[in-house]
Amino acid sequence: MTARKPANRSYSDWIEDQIREAQERGEFDDLPGKGKPLKGLDGPQDDLWWVKQWLAREGVSYLPVPLALRLEAEKLVDGLDRLSSEQSVRKALDELNGRIRHANRMPAIDGPPTTLMPLDVEQLVERWRSGRATMGNEPLSTAETPDAANTPSDVDARTATPRRWWRRR
With contact defined as beta carbons under 8 Å apart, do 26 and 35 qualify? Predict the structure, then answer.
């Protein structure tokens, strides 16, 4: 902790003396960024420059709800082939459609308006099926389809074999 300013000295003289003494002790040697140009000097003036630098340094990003939903829908449609079953495809699409419907009913006060329509589940499931057929995967058996999953013979077969506690993605 530094000493108190003497009563007979001005602030500027007292501060200049402290800086000079620190330089003589070598406290300003080996500082990070020494000799490098300062970032953002050529750019436009921004009052929130420090917030943007902090967000970039911490790796935080924020998208308004409509833009985040649009991005998530795009990623889900592009990654449908990675889902293992028709049931998981339908579940993911229904969950996203529920959030899209909620955002359309309750628009956000800040950010752009929501213009995203719910995804067509049947069309995307058919696309998923055709993608699996072209990849050389075997076609879906009747036990994997949601309508046939509740037949008594399938229920007995499922209860007879223990299920794994984990699933492959």
Answer: no
Kindly calculate the radius of gyration of the chain based on its CA atoms and give it in whole angstroms: 31
Separation of CA 153 from chain center? 43
Buried b (16+ CB within 10 A) or exposed e, 127-159: ebeeebeeeeeeeeeeeeeeeeeeeeeeeeeee
Q: Which residues contact 127 (CB under 8 A, 6 or more apart)?
A: 80
Amino acid at 69: L
Model-level pTM greater than 0.85?
Answer: no
Residue type, 168: R
Please list the alpha-helical segments (H only) found in 36-149: 49-58, 65-78, 86-105, 121-134
pLDDT digits (tens, 9 = 90+) for 113-147: 888 899 999 999 999 998 888 876 555 443 444 44
Structure token digits, residue 86: 């028709």
In angstroms, rounded to a whole number, what is the distance separating the alpha carbons of residues 50 and 53?
A: 5
Contact in structure between 66 and 111 (CB atoms under 8 Å)? yes
Task: Give the amino acid at 143.
Answer: A
Q: How far apart are CA 140 and CA 131, in angstroms?
A: 12
What's the one-letter identity of residue 32? P
**Cα 21 to Cα 114: distance, rounded to the nearest angstrom:** 60
